[in-house]
Design a protein that fits this description.
2 domains; alpha/beta; globular; D-Maltodextrin-Binding Protein, domain 2; 9-stranded mixed β-sheet; single chain; 11 helices; two-stranded antiparallel ribbon
Length: 262
């Protein structure tokens, strides 16, 4: 009997050691994120196609966040690899799994972000706006007037939250670029997207000249997410402070038509 108990305890101990070892293999060593990035020589950045923050021209990524990322990477002495996230709603799972080193794409600072990641200081302010065909935008000026309409929103986005919070009917799509296409094609009555994107893409002289911003639903702040406990967050905050003080941040904002609110 004693021999049986001893064997059982030995097996149980082995199982527990294996289990804890497995957990250790899957959990990123966040205390050394900065060292790991420098060792591999690149920072992997999770993004979506979101003009004017990250978008492509001639096969190359450009935009406000794109150039800001390159500037930070230059300070670290590493390259940048952009990864388009398949599902923005699962961005923190990608982050914790180590698929990306950070989420840097006009990300709204939410309770979910603060709970599931290490979030940088605020670097931009933004709002969620309703985009409609220009003729309707001029007449539908209250939330109540929108109750019978359907709006395309990016899955897991602040736009989706703003729509739900205001009691509007929403259809979740891949990203905000798709939401705009849904509004333009008439598949949805309109869309709810970031003001930064609407300012760059909607209205006279833009890609969506037949659409217009109707109203603001909510205001918010942008931040960059790293893994919980990551030492890269403090490094980025120091960089942002220096970049703003140098005047380069304002120059970059002016280049891409991003409004900087002090």
């Amino acid at each position: 009997m004693k021999k049986f108990i001893a064997i059982a305890l030995a097996v149980l101990t082995a199982v527990m050691v294996f289990a804890f070892a497995g957990c250790g293999d899957k959990t990123p060593d966040t205390a050394s994120d900065l060292a790991a990035i420098k060792e591999k020589g690149k920072i992997v950045v999770g993004i979506t196609d979101y003009k004017p923050m990250n978008y492509q021209e001639n096969g190359e990524w450009v935009g406000f966040d794109t150039e800001l990322t390159y500037a930070f990477a230059e300070k670290l002495g590493v390259e940048v690899e952009f990864v388009v996230l398949a599902d923005w709603g699962k961005k923190f799972l990608d982050l914790q799994a180590g698929t990306v080193d950070c989420v840097w794409n006009g990300m709204t600072i939410t309770d979910e972000a603060l709970k599931n990641s290490s979030v940088s200081d605020v670097y931009l302010k933004n709002s969620q706006v309703v985009v409609l065909p220009a003729d309707k935008a001029a007449t539908l000026t209250t939330v109540d007037a929108l109750k019978d309409l359907t709006f395309a929103v990016e899955e897991g986005s602040a736009g989706q939250t703003a729509g739900t919070d205001n009691g509007l009917k929403t259809v979740a799509v891949k990203d905000m670029a798709t939401a705009l296409l849904e509004a333009k094609s008439g598949a949805c009555d309109g869309c709810i997207i970031d003001k930064t994107m609407a300012d760059a893409t909607v209205g006279a002289g833009t890609s969506y000249a037949d659409l217009a911003t109707a109203m603001t639903l909510s205001t918010e702040e942008f931040g960059i997410s790293f893994r919980t406990g990551s030492d890269v967050t403090a490094e980025l905050n120091a960089f942002l402070k220096e970049y703003k003080e140098s005047g380069e941040f304002k120059k970059l904002a002016d280049k891409y038509g991003v409004t900087v609110e002090e």
